[in-house]
Specification:
Blueprint lengths: L1 E6 L5 H12 L3 E3 H9 L4 H11 L6 H12 L8 E4 L5 H13 L6 E6 L2 H15 L6 H25 L4 E5 L4 H11 L1
Parallel strand pairs: 1-3, 1-4, 2-3, 4-5
């Protein structure tokens, strides 16, 4: 099973993908987590990555495509996986389509968590206080929302149009348990 989670930054994709991962016993591939782990390596690439992430900019397609390729080659992805934070651009989506096609796989479900911008801002500010994340400052949050609306929202629309029978919109303004219930109903 291959699942893709879409939604604004802070929509709850990571939380819901992690819960779904446990339920289905397939890996949750969060590009955000992968990139934050890369930051811990303290090399020249991690320094550049830190500057990109803390400014609210997105990591290049080339970097993310390489990360995804290496990750999908691991054994734990052989029975499926959940993508959270990837793809974010049409270039990434086309790369993913090619990668999945070469492996004779298909995308099972695409889940879009629809959340109001103000709810997202409040969630991310709260997360920033709890986790001390530098990428959750209000000015960075607003920049990330604008980037999502410009670059990733059209991609979500592409999937809605081209994978309509497997594309689902869930109200992400709800409580975590209710959202997880709605996802379980779809799966």
């Amino acid at each position: 099973m291959i699942l893709i989670f879409f939604g604004l930054p802070g929509a709850g994709k990571g939380t819901q993908a992690a819960l779904t991962s446990k339920k289905l016993n397939i890996p949750h591939l969060s590009t955000g987590d992968i990139l934050r782990n890369k930051l811990l390596e303290k090399d020249s690439k991690s320094k550049k990555l830190k500057e990109i992430l803390e400014s609210g900019n997105l990591v290049s397609d080339e970097i993310l495509n390489g990360i995804i390729l290496r990750r999908l080659d691991k054994q734990d992805c052989s029975k499926g996986f959940i993508l959270d934070g990837y793809p974010r651009t049409m270039t990434q989506a086309l790369y993913l389509n090619e990668l999945i096609g070469l492996r004779k796989l298909t995308i099972s479900k695409i889940i879009n968590l629809s959340v109001d911008s103000e709810v997202v801002i409040n969630r991310m500010k709260s997360r920033s206080r709890i986790e001390n994340r530098k990428d959750d400052k209000e000015e960075v949050i607003k920049k990330r929302i604008l980037k999502y609306l410009k670059e990733t929202k059209p991609l979500s629309d592409y999937y809605r149009h081209n994978f309509s029978s497997n594309y689902y919109v869930i109200d992400g303004n709800q409580e975590i348990k209710k959202i997880q219930h709605d996802i379980s109903e779809i799966l």
